[in-house]
Amino acid sequence: MIELIPGLPPLFNALLVALIVGFFVGTATTLAVQQAEKAKLTRRIALVAGTLQGSKASGGLRAASQRKRMVAAKLKEIEDKAKAKKSNSNSLRDMLMQANLDWTPKRFYIVSVIVAVVGTALYLLKGFPPLIAPLVTITLGLGLPRWVLRKMASNRQKAFTFKFADAVDVIVRGIRSGLPVGECLNIIGREMPEPVGLEFRLIVEGQKLGLTMSEVLDRSLIRMPTAELKFFAIVLAIQQQTGGNLADTLSKLSDVLRGRKKLKDKIKSLSSEAKASASIIGSLPFFVSGLLYLINPGYLSILFTDPTGHVLIAGGLTWMGMGVFVMSRMIAFDY
Fold first, then answer.
1. HSE-up of 255 (CA within 13 Å, CB side)?
2. Which of 21, 95, 140, 262 has CA atoms 20 to 30 A from the CA of 308?
3. Does residue 270 sit in the same domain as residue 167?
4. What are φ and ψ of residue 9, in 5° steps?
5. Among candidates 242, 224, 231, 236, which has minimal Cα distance to 184?
6. What's the CA angle centered on 270, arms 266 and 271, to 5 degrees?
7. CB count, 10 Å around CB of 96?
8. Cβ atoms within 10 Å of 203's Cβ, excluding its own
9. Category of 99 on φ-ψ map: left (φ > 0), alpha (ψ -120 to 50) or beta
């Protein structure tokens, strides 16, 4: 047994050793508890400070996230409206509006029937085989008028997109100079060429009739369903809900639109060789056949006089149509 003080009874030595050991154990325990409490307090302070700093730092992130959610919701709303309009029975009326034709669907159908009847009559009067006459009627009555209508609408949308970025720049400069948005739209309607000027005049007239900006833009998207105008409608709708600097937002939109146009031009230049090759390949059989007919008409006349030749012509046109369709899909780039 350990004797701290010689001469004392063993019981006192044991008590003294227990007191010393208890003192050191208690001191060590107290220090450990204090260190644990201090570390816990430090962690809590750091957590609170980090939360505060995170809340300050994430304030802008939350605002940006909220803005992104609003943009996504607006995009979904516009896409749902576009799908509903696409599945609606008034799609022909919308196509007529997009082509800027003041026609009713009834008038369009009447013109289509007249074109089909006149074209079929001329086909039969020329002495061509009657077996192909139904196909000619369907093509001239259903295919050709709608193709012309879509082409007119497509050309109008391309002309609108070509000048739309300049219209957005006019709005940006007008807002920065102190003009209201309505006056900027009125200036575009007066000064910009068609079809941009016409669409903005219709927007201004709709507002004068008491429609909201969202309603007139929805109607504009029916007449001009371009991605650029959708972006413009989303920017104005989000700005009305959240506020902010509209001039800076539209300036960024103008940069995006010009970047899209630059990308389209680059894709067009890169694909021009493939389109030219496809055009040459598609027109070469008709060109060679025309030359052969001019040089020696009797060599090809049997195709038009013999029933077997009619079948061969029909088969050749079918294969040529399939080839032209495949080549057109191969060179059609989405952007």
1. 5
2. 140
3. no
4. -65, 155
5. 236
6. 115
7. 20
8. 21
9. alpha
CA distance 289 to 255: 50
Write the pLDDT tens digit of every residue in 113-170.
Answer: 998 888 888 888 877 777 778 888 888 888 888 888 888 988 888 888 888 888 888 8
User: What is the model's pTM?
Assistant: 0.61
Closest CA to 241 of 5, 54, 69, 14: 69
| The dihedral formed by the CA atoms of 122, 125, 128 and 130, expressed in degrees to the nearest 10 | 90
For residue 12, the enclosing domain spans: 1-69
CB 212 within 8 A of CB 233: no
Q: Are residues 238 and 97 in the same domain?
A: yes
Separation CA 73–CA 148 (nearest Å): 35
Give the distance, in angstroms, between the CA of residue 63 and the centroid of all CA atoms in the same chain.
24
* Cα separation, 89 vs 101, whole angstroms: 18
> Considering its fold, how many domains does the chain have in total?
3
Joined together, the tokens standing for residue 228 give 């650029």
CA distances from 222 to 43, 89, 107, 231 (A): 59, 14, 20, 14
Q: How many CB atoms lie within 10 A of CB 194?
A: 13
For residue 227, give the nearest of 278, 157, 287 by alpha carbon.
Answer: 157
Please determine, for residue 21, whether its predicted confidence score (pLDDT) is greater than 60.
Answer: no
Q: Which residue has the higher pLDDT, 46 or 120?
A: 120
Same domain, 164 and 41: no
CA–CA distance, 103 with 85 (Å, rounded to integer): 19
The first and second tokens of residue 216, run together, are: 């007139």
Residue where the block lists tokens 């709708």:
237
Judged by DSSP in three states, 226 sits in coil
Confidence of residue 61 (pLDDT cuts 50, 70, 90): low
CA distance 193 to 166: 11
Cα-based distances in Å from 98 to 138, 173, 223, 295: 24, 29, 5, 46
**Contact present, 253 and 232 (Cβ < 8 Å):** yes
Q: Residue 90 is which amino acid?
A: N
Question: Looking at the domain assignment, is residue 254 inside a domain?
Answer: no
Domain-embedded: residue 256: no
